[in-house]
Amino acid sequence: MLTVQNLSVHYRGIEALTAVSLTLRPGEWVGLIGPNGAGKSTLVKAILGLTPYRGKILLNGAALKRQRSQVAYVPQRSQLDWDYPITAWNVVMMAQTRALGWGRSPNSKAKKLVSAALDRVEMLPLKNRSIGQLSGGQQQRVFLARALAQQPNLFLLDEPFSGIDKKTEAVMLSIFADLSQQGKTLLVCSHEWGEALNRYDRLLLLNRRVLANDTPQAVMTMENIQQAYGANIQALHNQNGMPFVC
């Protein structure tokens, strides 16, 4: 179980997050939503230990910073350098670097984990393909495989459904359902709207603080969205072409 208690983050005098508290239970699939600049990425970075914060972040009652191996992160595709000369196999093998130690050759156990992870995302036949030669959906599956090979209890995913094909979406949804049944916890930063939000067990609506934390139907009300997005609500409505209420 992930517990965040009274978390605050400041950047150069600007308050990015204020008194954020939340709990993610084993087996839950939670969507993290909010406008640009709401602090979604900042929250993820704090959980990953990549930015200073005040407050507590606990995993199963102990400080998460002492359990980094239990957390896997799948970044946005736009944040990655796809021209870097590395194969799909080696991307996924990066998940085993900490366990193996820097500079050590992978053992049979590591190879089996990597092979199984690539097979699970249906990318094993393309394991020797350069990551830059893969389609967007294939790239996303490779980085999900890297997270799977780490064998964590908590998955943090940043826009995993952005710009992917239907096959990749189906593969990912199947994997997420399996992970949930295994008691793994998934926190997904999302810009999705409408019916797509109903795939989550719960939504966290964030704008520097938690504005709503409940089922998608309870969170996606006009009142909550107005509070989060303010004057931008009409532009968002026009852009998505759908009402906000699920």
TrEMBL record:
Recorded superkingdom: Bacteria
Residues covered by the ABC transporter domain: 2-233
Record's keyword terms, sorted: ATP-binding, Nucleotide-binding, Transport
A single MF term (Gene Ontology): ATP hydrolysis activity
Keyword Transport: yes
CDD domains from the UniProt entry: ABC_Metallic_Cations
Pfam families recorded: ABC_tran
SUPFAM superfamilies documented for this protein: P-loop containing nucleoside triphosphate hydrolases
SMART domains the record matches: AAA
Transmembrane segments: none
Family: Belongs to the ABC transporter superfamily.
UniProt-recorded name of the protein: Metal ABC transporter ATP-binding protein
Species annotation: Leptothoe spongobia TAU-MAC 1115
Species lineage: Bacteria, Bacillati, Cyanobacteriota, Cyanophyceae, Nodosilineales
